[in-house]
Amino acid sequence: MSSLTMSIPPGSWILVTGANGFLASHICLQFLERGFKVRGTVRVPAESLWLLEGRFKPYVDIGAIELVSALHLGADGAYDEAIKGAAAIIHTAYVTNIVPDPNDVITPTVAGIRSIMNAAIQEPSVKEVVFTSSALAASPLARGVDNGIIGRDSWNDAVLEAAWAPPPYGMSHAMANYPASKVAAEKEVWEFVKENDLHFNVNVVSPAGMTGEPLSKKHIEGQANWVVHAYRSNKAVMDSLQASFYGDVKDVALIHVAAVLDPEVKNARLQSWGHSAHWNEILSILRRLRPQKEFVDDYSDPHHLKVSVDQTESVALLKKWSDKPGKNGWAPYLEG
């Protein structure tokens, strides 16, 4: 790994937006471990001090990590100061509120893309920009929906139409707004790339569900902590999404790191979904790990989603950039 050619040198500043998120915190840590410096944007730095403690503390002591405030995701100039001197940007921040009005979710998410891209255009130090999208931008990941093979031009346009359906806004809008915001935001990224003569490279990483080690107690209670839902027998959530794809958060973070550092990855749309899985498979692992605990019964009709995705490029990056000898793909379920 140390002999790999990098698009930017160690010691460079990496800007990570939404740095206190489950995925973003792992991205920050992996860059720090590779000798880079990290500037993380959060809404309120005082509420994310855990990013300066524990495993992050040695990097605080050498001035390699700092937190800055970015209160409003889509505000004009929201990232103008934070971006100064940064060689790379990883934009993971998104609107987390589950609310019915798409104007409160989709609109600021897309505005956030414009804000950070406009800031990057004005900052000559920027060489690489990576956006976190979602598998839901390409596929609804729904039972019975056969999307065939997901490719470069696959889009979940139906959810965008559902989110922008006329008011009154209800729960159907609320459930559609997050995936719709990912569709709209990623389309905005590629439209921006098409319309502008950029001095930096742009890549997109699209995860599905994520499992793995939380770096903060807050992440254990997160809305999308899938393993916790199974561990706590939260049938309300489990029943609504019996099958999906899951990747270990450390692997998804590594693909983001590689999308910045690998000079051969350009203009890439990296589908990084991980393993196809059903709750029964996850429950089986949990029963083995916690034999004294009682879990919900297996589902009577286990199934996998009728969708195929080419993750060749993402898996190749995992093999190339991992510091684990012999790593040949996605980590097994629930690997720490």
TrEMBL record:
Coiled coil (UniProt feature): none
Keywords from the UniProt entry: Oxidoreductase
Residues annotated as domain NAD-dependent epimerase/dehydratase: 14-264
SUPFAM superfamilies according to UniProt: NAD(P)-binding Rossmann-fold domains
Single GO MF descriptor: oxidoreductase activity, acting on the CH-OH group of donors, NAD or NADP as acceptor
InterPro entries: Epimerase_deHydtase, NAD(P)-bd_dom_sf, NAD(P)_dehydrat-like
Pfam families, A to Z: Epimerase (PF01370)
Family that this chain belongs to: Belongs to the NAD(P)-dependent epimerase/dehydratase family. Dihydroflavonol-4-reductase subfamily.
Stated name of the protein: Aldehyde reductase 2
Originating organism: Lasiosphaeris hirsuta
